[in-house]
Amino acid sequence: MASLSRPSTSYSTTSTSYQYGYTDSNSYSLPPRGRRPSTSRPSTGRRSRESSILGGESQHIICAVSEGRGVSPTVGLALVNISTGEAVLSQICDNQFYVKTLHKLQVFEPTQILIVSTSGPPNPKSKMYQIVEENILGARIITVDRRYWSETSGIEYIQQLAFKEDLEAIKVAIGGNYFSVCCFCAALKYIDMSLSLTFAFHSLRVKYQPSEDSMMIDLATIQSLELIQNLQNAKSKDCLFGLMNETLTPMGSRLLRSNILQPSTQSNLLAARYDALAEFSENEDMFLQTRQGWSNTVIVVCFRRRKNSIRLHADAQSYLLPYFVPY
Q1: Predicted pLDDT of residue 137
Q2: Per the structure, how many domains does the chain have?
Q3: 292 assigned to some structural domain
Q4: pTM metric for this prediction
């Protein structure tokens, strides 16, 4: 495990800016390099299950969003789930109302959304910024200096952090998807500098998710059909997700939720799932042994803190403890 290189920080910031160029409406300053950080812990932007629009489980997800110019904007997204050690990249040809972008954000429910600093305060808010701010109420929007949206650094991150066996497939998938790669870079820079977390080499499950290979279900339909949350009782498991969720890991639960909200339309992927289901149905012993094996497996810790302090050790425990508790 090794820390990644950090960009130069020799530039001034205003009183409402983060030390490394991050700003939001509830801004606070990161401690200068070499000084022990305060023991008071700032808000991480995590939300409770009750506060979630779609009833998602509390996980720490950083999302970076960037767009190109044009009447029909091209929007890049990168979502890094710190809780499960996975990252999803996507690039969407959206309309002027950013319907597909909003749907993607509602499905993943990020805790923090990063946007290029020129698109938000103190500059005039861009149209995308305003629409995201109005519709994604549970997330905190943070503006990040444009220097951190680098395609070159994003590709380097992928080469360093993605599973070795997935590298070639990812490189092919991200070819020409400039905005999503830049977003991936911005998300990881923020995690490194603001949260003081670095991922170990080849420990992050990175995948590219094209928008055209899945169905889009609007929020009103998701709620009325009770796909994720019961209308009468938000804590009840009497919904499609609650009835189906027999998963044993946070990543499995997240994958099930994602597939309910945006079902795949890829015939080869669906056929492979049906084949796996048929094999487990015909061999109950193998199915039970597989589940037992998963329930006794400790999830590998794939990130580390760059700094040592009482606050950071306590914060790390809040991330790690859920993975050492039997499911």
Answers
A1: 87
A2: 1
A3: no
A4: 0.66
